[in-house]
Design brief:
alpha/beta; Dimethylsulfoxide Reductase, domain 2; Rossmann fold; Barwin-like endoglucanases; 3 domains; six-stranded mixed barrel; 16% strand
Length: 572
């Protein structure tokens, strides 16, 4: 980031908190938590209203010119109007004043509304997806968006104009979008900003999430031979995302055995008290395999000691362009075993051990052997033993430079047909589920609670039990704005109680202007033993909407609403 700034880039941090990033960049724009979608839609309104959108990119690489049927909300296809028609998407050709296949017309209309006759003789209205998006964005002029986001209208307009006029422009989305129930729509809206300005697939531009290599599926992990690894019989693997297991007691009642490995859900998943009191009692047997006696392990029937990374061979995968072999340095100490070995021994006792007979190195060779993944071609275990290998992508790598997107249409789909059923075909903005000013609970619990990462540990790892890290960051502290602290008689260092109907905690307060009024914050990852009472995930909930639960169709986890939480704070 510093290099980019030295080269003339301007960096803006949009965040409810004055983070260490916000302190070092060109501009900090504080925003009301959970309103990023409204900001993105307002920026779209300004960009289109001022004619700053990239019409060529929208026409060629997004579903913008596709015609949407008024009767069912689906895209109009050739087979809808012709007896022998195919699945080709239809657009309105301005020059020919007619319907045409999207692949045949280089400059279709972006704004069009027409009546068409279907092959059964009935007449319907069709309208371009871009026109529908524009109508949605028009509902969020800066004056209205300012009331929602607390960002001044002039600042919203200036940000939109500067973003659209600066080429290339890059947006990096923080992980906090995933911690609101409707965060997927906010993320869709921000991606749409990139598409409207032609900032996807260009050098130096884009819309990135996390580490930024999602253009190749997040990392090389997605290119491994996972199909054969996870489904040795060829039978598809059944995936049940964690929030569906914990957030749906009916599913929990049908699940009699729970094995947790590589996760600490009682500490890190929402609705801690619900999980302990309502979900766990349904299981007849609960096993945890871990290196440490975590909060989750304390509730298990049996705890199996897992190896450290020094005691087993594996491939180290992160969000970058390299693979590295994690080579075993020592034999496992005491009774610790690699997970794959334990799974194999149990499978053998259950009568299907033949699927687990490979050694660790043979499993890794299987994962690397994916003929469909050009990114992994030529990378072998023997080469990895000599050092890290870069996967086969250009250097520098420009995500989506081929403009072939992983959607049904191979275009950027800001209009999604299958979400029509849930009324979310466009990236609309919804008030957060709980932290909405319309929620009657606001009178009882007037503060929004957030929990973010800290530099001192990774989730519940390292810092929670490492004396050196605890020396730097010894205990959880709740950040609160001076205006909220003053009305409660709270000063820095005071012990405070934070609570709602689901739970409570007790810790020290940190009064700071580095957080927006009406919001409080505690870094996530702390264990119960670090609080003076309670735990932050006693306050959270695991509610899902129909749309978020349907992310299972994409084999993705539903949003966990960690930030969508109302609380009250009092001096203890």
């Amino acid at each position: 980031m510093y290099d980019a700034m030295d080269n003339g880039a301007k960096i803006v941090s949009i965040d409810p908190r004055f983070t260490s990033t916000a302190a070092k960049v060109n501009q900090w724009i504080p925003i009301k938590p959970g309103t990023d979608g409204a900001l993105a839609l307002s920026m779209m309104h300004v960009i289109v209203d001022k004619n700053l959108h990239d019409k060529s990119f929208i026409a060629k690489y997004t579903v913008g010119p596709f015609l949407v049927r008024s009767d069912n909300g689906m895209f109009l296809r050739d087979k809808d109007i012709n007896e022998k028609g195919g699945d080709a998407y239809l657009v309105y050709d301005i020059a020919g004043d007619k319907l045409d296949h999207s692949a045949k017309n280089a400059e279709p209309a972006l704004i069009a509304k027409r009546e068409v006759t279907l092959k059964n003789g009935s007449k319907i209205t069709v309208e371009t997806a871009f026109s529908l998006l524009k109508k949605l964005a028009d509902k969020y002029p800066p004056d209205l968006a300012s009331k929602i986001t607390t960002i001044p209208a002039a600042q919203i307009e200036a940000l939109a104009v500067e973003y659209a006029k600066t080429k290339p422009s890059l947006i990096r989305i923080g992980r906090s979008f995933h911690v609101y129930m409707d965060g997927h729509n906010a993320q869709r809206a921000v991606i749409t900003l990139g598409a409207l300005t032609g900032n996807i697939g260009n050098s130096g531009g884009g819309v990135l999430h996390g580490g930024g290599t999602q253009a190749i599926g997040g990392s090389a992990l997605s290119r491994f031979n996972m199909k054969e690894f996870l489904s040795p019989t060829g039978k598809p693997l059944k995936v049940l995302p964690g929030l569906h297991l914990t957030g749906n007691p009916e599913i929990a009642k049908r699940t009699k055995f729970l094995w947790v490995s590589g996760k600490n859900p009682i500490n890190q998943s929402p609705a801690k008290n619900k999980f302990i009191n309502e979900i766990l009692p349904n299981y007849e047997f609960f096993v945890v395999m871990d290196q440490f006696m975590t909060v989750t392990a304390e509730h298990a029937d049996i705890v199996l000691p897992a190896c450290s990374w020094f005691e087993k061979t594996d491939i180290a995968v992160a969000v970058h362009y390299y693979l590295q072999l994690q080579q075993k340095a020592i034999e496992p100490l005491h009774e610790a075993r690699p997970e794959i070995e334990v799974y194999g021994q149990i499978a053998n006792r259950l009568g299907f051990g033949k699927y687990f007979e490979k050694t660790s190195e043979e499993w890794l060779e299987l994962l690397l052997n994916n003929p469909r993944a050009t990114e992994l071609q030529g990378i072998t275990l023997e080469k990895l033993k000599k050092g890290a290998c870069r996967i086969n992508v250009p250097d520098p790598y420009i995500g989506w430079s081929d403009k072939k997107f992983l959607t049904d249409s191979q275009r950027v789909e800001f209009y999604v047909e299958w979400l029509k059923e849930y009324g979310e075909e466009l990236p609309l903005f919804k008030d957060p589920y709980e932290v909405s000013s319309k929620n009657p609970l606001y009178k009882k619990y007037p503060l929004m609670f957030q929990q973010g990462h800290t530099r001192y540990y990774a989730h519940s790892q390292f810092g929670a039990y490492n004396p050196s890290m605890l020396e730097l960051h010894p205990e959880p502290m709740m950040s609160i704005h001076p205006s909220d602290a003053k009305s409660r008689g709270i000063k820095t260092g005071d012990i405070v109680s934070m609570f709602n109907d689901r739970g409570k905690l007790s810790c020290k307060a940190l009064v700071t202007e580095g957080i927006v009024p009406g919001c409080v914050h505690i870094p996530e990852g702390w264990w119960p033993r670090h609080y003076r009472g309670g735990h932050h995930n006693e306050l959270t909930h695991d509610t899902m909407t129909k749309a978020t639960s349907q992310n299972v169709k994409l084999r993705r986890e539903s949003n966990s609403p960690f930030y969508d939480v109302l609380v009250q704070v009092k001096k203890a």
